[in-house]
Design a protein that fits this description.
The structure is a single chain. The chain is α+β, with helices and mostly antiparallel strands. The protein folds into two domains: 347 residues, ADP-ribosylation/Crystallin J1 (ADP-ribosylglycohydrolase fold, Orthogonal Bundle); 136 residues, Galactose-binding domain-like (Jelly Rolls, Sandwich). It is built from 18 helices and 14 strands. The strands form three sheets. Strands 4, 6, 7, 9, 12 and 14 form a six-stranded antiparallel beta sheet that branches. α1 runs parallel beside α15, α1 packs antiparallel against α16 and α15 runs antiparallel to α16. The N and C termini lie far apart (46 Å).
Length: 512
Amino acid sequence: MPKNKYYELSLNTLQDKILGGWCGKAYGCMMGEPMEFKAQGETYEGSLDIDPKAPTTWLHNEDDMYVNMALLEIMREKGLDAGIDDYAEVFRESEFMLWHANGQARQNIKDGIAPGLSGHPFYNPHADDIDFQIECDFIGLVSPGLPLSSTRIADQVGHLMNYGEGYYAGVFLSSLYAAAFIETDRTRMIEMAIQTIPTDCDYAAMLRDLLSYYREEQNDWRQTWQKIEDKWNFDLCPWAKTDKGRFNIQGHFNGLYIIMGVLYGGGDYIKSISICTRCGQDTDSNVGNCGGIMGAICGYENLPETVKSELEPYMDRDYNHTSLSNNSASVLCYDLALSNIEQAGGHIEEGKVYIPEQRFYFEGTREVSFINMHFVDAYKSDDKAISWHGDWHVDEEGWGKETLTSSNPGDYAEVNFSGTCIYMQGNLKSDYGIIDIYIDGELVQQRDCYIAPRWNNSMQSTAVWLTGLTDDTHTLKVVISDKKNPKSSGTSAGLGRVVSYRGEVAALPDEW
């Protein structure tokens, strides 16, 4: 057997790195959770103390963990060759709530849109959001040293909720996990993983900038943070257009903060996740990913004792709405990793696993979600630009009181806008009906706003997402219909913010 074609790893090390990955992610989520979006366009300079309630009452209900576990359950049931329709069951049936691209994927799939298109920007205005990145950890942990296997699995999962840069964020991170099992130099790991996404995509350019800034200044991460902020903080998510802060929930932009922690932490787990937390934005997700990567690099045994002792009482507690815990997920990932290695041509011998060398590379055509896209206007529900006709009132049950609701068929909201794309926030409830959507007086779409009671108040859902309009001034009118889903107990509707854009989205694939 030519040794230079295989990576050699002891079975104990493989187990240790997988367990380190899950525990590192869990602890990272706990550190970052209290600061989530507390710092937008600025660094977080407050306390990094773990909330005492985090491990006892919060961690098991962390979406970054339970979505990972739910997807891993699919792999347990269907095997390494599970397809996108199999993984879509997580969005069709799981009890837990979902947000942004994940929530839109659920809404799309429940509306009958094929899983392969549920993350496409034609149907999903959150296509570049962070969602695939935050739940791709399991892919890398079952693909040690196997970037081709990791990318193959990513293709079956990532397009459920994302496309383009949002998809590449998860592909890159999965590949980074794969590299962490066979490479010890952190910079080299990153360079290897970059090769699995298109060289001309934005994320590759951002990562190359980050590595360049790091080489110029390896001691002051804040200088690098500012350069990244100045050049790359621009997000098209409907929630990004705000009147305060610089909100960003892109996968690729937030991914830079993960890598800043990995680079500037110097190999120290706590220092790495601390830097990542201070970078701001979606801290529980970013720090969870950073902690997971660092946990895989360090291995469980080399994690700080404070981390292990904090998590120890909860290692066998299942994550909410799943049947997997840190321990059981690690055992399952270990078994799947061995199967994956053997499937790829590797083997096990005398307490060691021999991982066949796979090339880190990208093959295919680059995806671009939003083409020359920029904001035109954004209005919250209380903005005078939106005219509310009928008995609309603030939805007191919805968090943030962001939407207005009415139960009267014929009531409508109307707004004038300029641009080629228009978004309107909706809510989904078990007593909501169907809305009729008009552009310039023409009925162009209907949308069913019913959802099963367990998902009531899906507040980041979409009432309107229309693209490809003429670049002109238009009138959007959304009317409560007297029709409803047979499962619904009413004909109410909930509507919220309106965001207009100029630009275009990726075309649907020809085969669809």
